[in-house]
Design goal:
The structure holds 2 protein chains of 2 kinds. Chain A is of the alpha/beta class. Chain A is built from 12 helices and 19 strands. Chain A folds into 3 domains: 247 residues, Metallo-dependent phosphatases (Purple Acid Phosphatase, chain A, domain 2, 4-Layer Sandwich); 91 residues, no CATH class; 76 residues, no CATH class. The chains are: A alpha/beta, B alpha/beta. Chains A and B meet through helix 1, helix 2, helix 8, helix 10 and helix 11 of A and helix 6, helix 7, helix 8, helix 25 and helix 26 of B.
């Protein structure tokens, strides 16, 4: 058994659009378009710098089935650079780039091996003629892969073997927030004859298990505020057939951050703006010299609530904070402000009177606590807009959380419109 | 808030009018037209809410009969009366609020008393006249309507209609199921268009695939054409090479032909043989010329050596000559110094003699030389001088200080005198003042307190007397009523007895007149009794029995007794206080005010007197301090005088010690010391001058001795004075010339030796060159130089042709690139140039065809490559996808906004609907109950649609009416009920302002007026009500005056209890 290292990455999503970002400045838009390519190039350079033996790509290298020529060529160029340094690449297809997807005629270099979808295949990785590890993998046939791909791997036995790696794009334990493709359980993974499960599909990195190693590296570039914080790959060192080190390295070219600001200590908008600017300065210090896309969440209970719920105030604050960073290089794009703050007076207090507002708030609270009532609202009240196929196609189906969000905004509206002037 | 009374300084027709004792319940003020009812209503409004701004013709009721504009309102509180003063000023006037304990309040305190009521609300709801009552308009003012109808929405809530409108408008702006203008509709269209563009752009992958295939095909064709092109190029290059080397080939052939013509049997000479011979001939010629030149040079040097002259005797004495020449300048200086020192020594001796004469007899050169002007002597002199100066200055200052302080004491004594006179002008002062002044107390504080206490007691006494009179009157009324009722019963009893008696007599069968007489007698007796009862007051016995029988009457009696007891206590307290002050018990408020004014006057007098006394005491204290300072200054002056005398004695002693006259001042002594020091210094300088003179004379003598020795050695005479320098210079000049000639002679001898050696070398070299020339001719087997030259020419031509052959062969090799040059030369000998040209032309034609084909394919290849590169770097799809994401996010944001507005509208309508049905505003509910009661249940209730400033009336049968559909009287009754409903509702929340109504009953018929009066009386049970009226008949609707109902008359600017 020799000592070797490999890089485990997944969900490259080359040429992936950013979700939920509206940036007017051309240089920001251009940076966002280039971000997934930039992250991929950083990954390639990282493998070369670390003199790693091989690179594992656990699915969703491309973002669409009809993957763009540019994305495929960028991938090919990266692989070619790795080939120049003798680094092998093992990849599987995921739900975003299944085998049946449309291909352009981009021929990959010989150091790349893409596993098929019929069943797990195994490739032995060698160094100077002596075997180091066995990499097994299986790809998605179609976008909606229903098979339990992990269960197709050979069962564990006691015969001596090489260090084994399983490469799969799978949803382990029904992870929420991700499509339930290639579902599998921990039991499936433990039973297979694999020492390191290199998984993809879940975009939040985590080491699920260490015996055997079951690892999701997450995606290498965040694409929305759901995927905020640092994104990257795991550098894995193996000595004498055992994993000695699993080291996370950030690769993202642009970073999403949600900055939570409490309005509680602030008596004026100016003070709040200063606090928000300070939060961005801290984020800049903490995140090195990469561009940042920040969203503010205003929370807490405070006297500013009544001002913040008025139309146009939040937009004005956003403009004020943006002025601090408009010439920053690399850029800081302050995307939006989400208000989740509460009035100084407790909503419960407002609900206790006999007035109209109290009645409205009580009614809302009752509905909010009832999933049935929320569902009823979606069907009977909101369906004229959200029931449209094109709308649901663009923004997704309406979830219960969305209705609660709208209800929350409606509550603020009613407070603004109906509450006493001096409240 | 209960108004106890008010005081008008000046307001409209009222001036200095005061009234107290308003009922906390109903107060009716009866007055004719122009009596001042509206003015009092305005006065109450102004007192509570301030003067209106004097603009747009608003009547501010300026004082028409004198007095300062404004006045005060006396408000009741648990701790006593609160006085609210207001006079004109900015922001509604100047307010002062005085609490019973003397503390002052502010405008904020007044606002608290008003419980948030605004002027508009007060003027329309609490204080209203007939004109306001007749219309709903006064209630639909935004502020008032919010207060009346907005209870369910929450006090102060904004318009529901505005909220509905805002929600509906924003919803419509965001989205409509049909239409293109709403923001979301626009975004959906944009999203569709973008999706179509994405689909179109996604076909780029197919284009790329086709391009790759086309590229492969072109590549194959290129692969086949390229070798052909290379072959043709090789062929062309060969032909071009042959043509290129044709010139070299011709040179080669020509050189070979000529070389064959040269004979082969002569000695081959080296190429440089000819130049070697020429060189040897040149060297032999030049060597011969050099030898001749050197021989001429040698002869010249021999002539020069013979012409040079040298003085050897002078060279032997060279060193002394040089030394004396160099010392001559020093010799001259020493001669001059001897002369100068002699003169200076004489001058200093004369000066010293002069100083001795100045210092006086006894001062000789010896004594002066013995003087020691030591530093200690000067220091002693300085010390004495400084001590004398300080002592004199201190003495001077102390004397000045004594004079100044004496003046200060005199000034203070004068001021004490002036202040004592001023204090006496304050008039006679009681002895107690002096004691109070010493104790730091106010001797009149007790009198002022007692005066205030008396005023308060008198006020309470007057109030109790009024109350007592009122209670007594009520008790009397009750007794009279009981007495008369008893009379009525007795009369009825007599009448009934007579009737029974008559009936009995009729039954017994008496004549008709007998029973009739009995009845008549009974009735007469009853009538007489009744008349007596009604005319006579109830007897004491009856009243006592009534007190025992009627508990309420008994309580009233007890109450009156208690009040009488309180009255007595007050009178006793007043008597005690008056006795303490030494005045008669005051009976009127004016007497107390006079007493307080007198007390204030005395207090002011006391304060003035106290000021004078304080100043006087201060002056006396300052006088004592100044006297002390004068004594201290005198003591100081005496001490400085003693110190000065001591210093002068020490100075005399010092002068004696130095043998100076004792009359000398320190300045004169310093001058004498200075002169002595100068003399001693001159003595030392004269001694130095003498020493230097001796040294200079010694050096002059030494120089002249040396010069004498030199002249003797050269057998020359000693130079005369003035010619020493010239003689020495001449000797030096001759010495230099001899030395120079001697050196030249040595150099010439050395040069002659060198020239002779060179001549020998040149001769030897000439011999060698002749030998070499002979050897050269022998090597070419030539007998003569002529023969040697011919052999050289042949040898050089052969070498030239061989070189030409080599160059041509090398050119052919280079141009052709052929390694086998001999083979090529062989082929060239068989070829012709024209044949080669023809083959070149043919190959060029073929190459051009091939290149055209290649260019065409390469162009296509480049185009395809460019297309593929464009596809590879094209960000169109990425941009479209990004835009798709952006639009989707915008749709999401806008949709969520629409959702929020939709939900807000939904919940708002649900709540409105619920509240309309279930929860009418409390004001309306209370007003409805009052209205139902007043209208004997004809109207079931009042209904206020939520968020609308209107009301509806629901009748018993369920039909609804608007206020416009009611008669004027009923409508006014309705508006009165709404106001009363509001007043009651606000009172429940703690706001209780006085209610002022101005002739509000005039439009009611008798029934409605009775019902309205009943309602007003009911309101007055919990609120203070002022009802102004000019209609006396209305008074009976409210019954008789009582503690809860006061009646006042207003006439000619005077308001008084009726």
């Amino acid at each position: 058994m020799t000592t070797f290292s490999f890089v485990h990455a997944a969900d490259i999503h080359l040429d992936s659009p950013f979700a939920g970002i509206t940036a007017s400045a051309p240089h920001i838009r251009e940076t966002l378009i280039q971000a997934s390519f930039q992250a991929w190039r950083k990954l390639v350079e990282f493998c070369i710098d670390e003199r790693t033996d091989f690179l594992l790509l656990a699915g969703d290298i491309f973002d669409w089935e009809d993957r763009s020529v540019r994305a495929q060529l960028a991938f090919r160029d990266g692989c070619a650079r790795l080939a120049d340094h003798g680094i092998q690449v093992f990849a599987v297809h995921g739900n975003h780039d299944p085998i049946q997807g449309r291909y352009a005629a981009v021929e990959l270099t010989e150091n790349v091996y893409v596993f098929g979808s019929n069943g797990p295949e195994t490739r032995v990785v060698e160094r100077q003629g002596s075997p180091m590890a066995a990499v097994s993998g299986i790809s998605y046939q179609t976008r909606e892969e229903k098979r339990n791909l992990a269960s197709l791997f050979p069962a564990r036995d006691s015969s001596p073997r090489l260090f084994s790696i399983g490469l799969v794009h799978a949803n382990l334990g029904g992870a929420t927030g991700h499509a339930p493709y290639a579902p599998c359980t921990m039991s499936d993974l433990v039973q297979a004859s694999i020492d390191y499960w290199a998984l993809g599909h879940v975009h939040q990195r985590r080491v699920v298990s260490e015996a055997p190693y079951v690892v999701y590296p997450g995606n290498i570039q965040g694409r929305s505020f759901i995927e905020q914080g640092e994104r990257g790959v795991y550098l894995v060192h193996v000595r004498a057939g055992a994993v000695t080190d699993v080291d996370f390295r950030a690769m993202d070219a642009v970073r999403f951050l949600v900055l939570d600001i409490s309005i509680e200590p602030h008596g004026s908008v100016d003070s709040l703006v200063q606090d928000m600017a300070n939060a961005v300065y801290k984020a800049l210090d903490d995140n090195g010299d990469r561009p940042l896309i920040c969203r503010f969440t205003l929370s807490g209970r405070g006297a500013l609530f009544s001002q913040l719920i008025k139309p146009g105030v939040v937009e004005q604050i956003l403009d004020n904070v943006r002025e601090y960073f408009q010439d920053k290089d690399p850029f800081v794009w302050l995307e939006n402000i989400r208000t989740q703050c509460l009035p100084l007076a407790d909503i419960m207090d407002l609900m206790e009177s006999d007035g109209l507002l109290a009645r409205v708030l009580r009614d809302m609270a009752e509905v909010e606590d009832s999933p049935l009532a929320l569902s009823d609202l979606a069907e009977k009240v909101l369906s004229p807009l959200f029931g449209r196929r094109l709308v649901s196609g663009a923004i997704g189906k309406l979830a219960e959380k969305d209705i609660v969000d709208m209800l929350d905004k409606a509550r603020n509206l009613c407070i603004d419109l109906l509450e006493q002037e001096d409240a | 808030m209960i108004v106890e009374g008010f005081h008008i300084n000046g307001f409209g027709i009222f001036s200095q009018m005061e009234i107290r004792g308003f009922s906390p319940g109903l107060n009716i003020i009866l007055g004719g037209n122009e009596a001042g009812k509206s003015t009092i209503l305005a006065f109450l409004r102004v007192m509570l809410f301030g003067f209106p701004r004097n603009t747009t013709g608003t009547n501010t009721y300026p004082p028409l009969k004198g007095g300062a504009h404004g006045g005060s309102l006396i408000l009741a509180s648990d701790n006593g009366p609160i006085v609210l003063n207001r006079s004109p000023g900015a922001h509604g006037g100047n307010i002062s609020l005085s609490y019973p304990d003397g503390t002052k309040g502010t405008g904020d305190d007044l606002q608290r008393l008003l419980a948030g009521a605004t002027p508009t609300l007060f003027n329309n709801v609490y204080a209203f006249g007939l004109s306001e009552l007749q219309t709903i308009q006064s209630l639909t003012n935004e502020e008032v309507a919010s207060a009346l109808y907005g209870a369910s929405l929450g006090a102060g809530v904004r318009s529901l209609a505005a909220a509905r409108k805002q929600i509906s408008q924003r919803q419509g702006d965001l989205f409509k199921p049909t239409g293109k203008k709403p923001e979301i509709n626009q975004k959906i269209s944009e999203f569709k268009e973008n999706a179509a563009l994405i689909t179109q752009a996604a076909r780029d992958a197919d284009i790329y695939l086709a391009s790759v295939k086309a590229l492969e095909s072109i590549q194959q064709e290129l692969n086949s054409l390229n070798p052909l092109k290379i072959q043709l190029n090789k062929k062309i290059r060969f032909c071009e090479n042959i043509l290129g080397l044709w010139g070299d080939w011709l040179d080669y052939a020509q050189a070979l032909s000529r070389l064959e013509e040269i004979p082969q049997n002569f000695v081959q000479l080296p190429e440089n043989s000819l130049s070697l011979l020429e060189s040897l001939n040149d060297k032999i010629g030049s060597a011969t010329e050099e030898i001749l030149a050197l021989q001429e040079e040698l002869a010249g040097l021999q002539n020069l050596a013979a012409s040079l002259e040298v003085e050897t005797g002078l060279i032997d004495q060279g060193e002394p000559i040089v030394l004396l020449n160099s010392e001559y300048a020093g010799y001259r200086i020493n001669l001059e110094n001897v002369q100068r020192h002699t003169l200076q020594l004489d001058a200093k001796n004369a000066e010293i003699q002069s100083i001795c004469t100045s210092l006086g007899a006894g001062w000789t050169l010896e004594r002066l030389a013995g003087f020691e002007g030591s530093l200690f002597l000067k220091q002693d002199l300085d010390r004495h001088e400084k001590a004398l100066s300080i002592a004199a200055q201190a003495n001077q200052q102390a004397s000045s200080q004594v004079i100044l302080r004496q003046e200060s004491v005199d000034e203070i004594l004068e001021e004490i005198h002036r202040r004592a006179e001023a204090a006496n002008k304050a008039g006679t002062t009681p002895h107690a003042w002096e004691q109070a002044f010493q104790a730091g107390q106010d001797p009149l504080a007790a009198s002022r307190d007692a005066g205030n206490k008396l005023a308060e007691l008198l006020s309470r006494k007057e109030f109790l007397e009024q109350e007592l009179a009122h209670q007594t009157q009520r008790m009397t009324d009750k007794a009279v009523f009981a007495w008369r009722r008893r009379g009525y019963f007795a009369a009825v009893f007599l009448f009934g007895g007579a009737l029974l008696a008559g009936t009995g007599l009729m039954i017994y069968g008496l004549e008709w007149y007998a029973p009739l007489s009995a009845v008549a007698l009974g009735m007469i007796a009853g009538a007489m009794y009744l008349a007596r009862i009604t005319k006579s007051p109830p007897p004491e016995r009856f009243i006592i029995k009534l007190g025992i029988r009627d508990q309420e009457f008994a309580r009233m009696g007890t109450g009156i007794e208690a009040q009488q007891a309180k009255l007595r206590e007050i009178e006793e307290d007043m008597g005690r206080l008056s006795a303490g002050l030494g005045i008669a018990v005051p009976q009127t408020n004016q007497e107390i005010l006079d007493f307080i004014a007198h007390t204030d006057f005395e207090f002011n007098r006391f304060r003035s007197w106290m000021g004078f006394r304080t100043d006087l005491e201060e002056c006396r204290a300052r006088g004592k301090a100044a006297a002390k300072r004068l004594d201290a200054a005198r003591e100081t002056a005496m001490q400085t005088q003693i110190s000065l005398a001591s210093c002068e004695a020490a100075w005399q002693d010092w002068l004696k010690g130095q043998e100076f006259p004792t009359s000398l001042s320190p300045v004169s002594a310093r001058e004498a010391l200075s002169l002595m020091e100068t003399g001693a210094a001159l003595l030392r300088e004269a001694s130095i001058e003498e020493l230097q003179l001796v040294q200079c004379r010694s050096k002059v003598q030494e120089f002249e001795d040396n010069l004498r020795q030199l002249t003797m050695a050269l057998s020359l005479p000693f130079p005369k004075p003035g010619l020493v320098q010239a003689s020495l210079q001449e000797l030096g000049s001759r010495l230099d010339k001899s030395r120079e000639n001697q050196a030249v002679q040595k150099q010439v001898a050395s040069g002659m030796e060198t020239v002779e050696f060179k001549i020998k070398e040149k001769v030897s070299r000439l011999d060698n060159l002749n030998c070499e020339r002979k050897n050269l001719l022998a090597s070419a087997q030539a007998q003569s130089e002529q023969e040697f030259l011919e052999k050289c020419r042949l040898s050089r031509e052969q070498i030239s042709l061989e070189n030409q052959l080599e160059r041509a062969a090398s050119g052919i090799r280079n141009v052709s690139g052929e390694k086998d040059i001999q083979g090529l030369l062989g082929r060239l000998s068989t070829m012709s140039r024209d044949e080669c040209l023809a083959r070149l032309q043919e190959a060029n034609n073929e190459l051009k065809c091939t290149e055209d084909a290649l260019q065409d394919l390469t162009g296509k290849y480049a185009e395809l490559k460019a297309d593929m590169r464009r596809l590879a770097s094209d960000t169109k799809v990425s941009l479209l996808r990004t835009k798709e994401g952006e639009i989707a996010e915008q749709i999401k944001n806008l949709s969520f906004q629409w959702g929020a507005y939709t939900l807000a509208g939904l919940f708002l309508e649900r709540a409105v609907s619920f509240l309309e049905e279930e929860q009418q505003p409390e004001v309306i509910t209370r007003a409805g109950t009052l209205f139902k009661e007043i209208t004997d249940g004809r109207y079931e209730r009042i209904y206020a649609p939520l968020g609308e400033k209107s009301i509806e009336l629901i009748m018993t049968d369920g039909t609804r009416k608007n206020p416009e559909q009611l008669s004027r009287g009923t409508a006014e009754l309705l508006y009165l009920c709404i106001r009363m409903g509001y007043i009651q509702a606000r009172a429940k929340q703690g706001a209780n302002l006085p209610v002022v109504m101005d002739d509000v009953l005039v439009n009611f018929d008798a029934t409605r007026a009775t019902q309205a009066a009943h309602a007003i009386s009911g309101l007055a049970r919990g609120h203070q009500v002022f009802l102004f009226t000019c209609h006396k008949p209305f008074l009976k609707l409210f019954g008789n005056p009582s503690p809860d109902f006061h009646l006042y008359t207003l006439h000619q600017g005077k308001l008084a209890p009726a």
